[in-house]
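Lecture 7, part 2: worked example. A protein chain together with pyridoxal-5'-phosphate.
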Amino acid sequence: MAGELEMSREQMLDFGRKALDLVVERIESLPGENAWEGEFRKVLAEQLLEDPPEEGRPGDEVMERVVRDVLPLTVRLDHPRCFGFVPSAPAWPAVVADFLAAGWNVNQCTWLVASGPSQLELVVIDWFRRWLGYPEGAGGLFTSGGSAASVDAFVAARDAAGHPERATVYMSDQSHSALVRAAVIVGVRRECIRMIPSDADFRLDMDALARAVADDRAAGFTPVAVAANAGTVGTGAIDPLEAMAGFCAAEGLWLHVDAAYGGFAAVTERGRRLLRGIERADSIGLDAHKWFFQPYEAGCLLVKDESALRDAFAVRPDILQDTVWGANHPNFSDLGLQLSRSARALKVWMSVQTFGMARFRRAVANGMELAARAEGHVRASPVLEAMSAATLGIVCFRVNPADSELDEAALEEVNRAVLARMFWDDPAFMSSTLLHGTFALRMCILNDATTWDDVRETLEAVEKFGKEALSKTEAPE
Ligand SMILES: Cc1ncc(COP(=O)(O)O)c(C=O)c1O
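Predicted complex, written out as structure tokens:
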């Protein structure tokens, strides 16, 4: 063999087949596993902290070690009972597509370097554009995720506003931390990031937004952008998109919609209705690695006027002079923060081609239907209290029987205890949040393999642990 790092054909096939067997085995055994497994750093450091070996070991041994000691120690985000944070259940053709892209060693930076994958990215971006109701002329690119999409969007917004000195941006107090971080990255001072209060339904308060913008203008700041939520990560709430679009148009502000979590609901009838107005935004961020069944990383930014992105990002270095094929042959590296990029559109394209949109639509709808049923179960439960309506695939609730006399602090203690029991004593994985300061249990249901039994049995476990925790807690005198 010529290269130091090459393997023979037989070795490559053996190694690859072994990996394939292990991955398929893992996926098949998922429902019988717990949705979470983890270990403390001290234990893991003892197992793994070592110098790199000077001489290699048989690849089989290396793979077995990683599959035994490393990879299982995660939240199994694709487990049918994984309801914590934002789960992700990749479609198999998409997983294989990532392998193909790595095998073909695609660098999806410029047309010259990757014309086939670039054309495919144009195709998939155009699918997304149409699903969201954006006009022709809109465009965008795949990103690592919603965080990177938010950064790219704020760069475009800041440049479109002429990069003012005292820039302010606005978002609801339910917005994802990625939006705050994106604003910081583009140079908005932390004290100039306005967190606008949300209403009882966790939707941005329009009056408060209008007041904040007016106050800032009066104080000599330059309002630049407003970020709306199309599915907050806490409750799935959708901000008043139509009203925000009207306001931003009147005020000359860039409207970015963070649809990282909820955007793909648009492929369903119900989702399209809920997201009405999103098509009026200047930019939209969405994550195919959340509710569109793709492995990490598969974020995306769409911009209504693609030239805004190009104006903000395009740089022409001498070393890349050969890559300029003209406006008709876009270099995706001119639209965002990455030069070297993986071929992320490939996995979306392959999975949609393989299953077809009808199946994807039903897969997305499954999450919404189960979340609505979960809310019904919660509202009918003598032990649980609903804390948010199931707008998309999220339902928030807590243990709080109608006749409970516990104060808020005691209720929080009970619910924290229930979450801990779920964590250690139940196969499902759930997480919690604070809703306007109140501790809430939260189920995010996105996996198309999740059944009503998975959801019901998880809620029943919460009820059982809830009753046990309540019986141990003294009501205040
Ligand atoms: C609503 C929302 N926005 C942004 C993000 C950040 O996206 P990513 O983790 O893909 O960078 C998330 C992640 O959960 C999210 O739910």
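Residues 357-380 form the longest helix (24 residues). DSSP finds 16 helices and eleven strands in the chain. Keep this in mind for problem set question 3.
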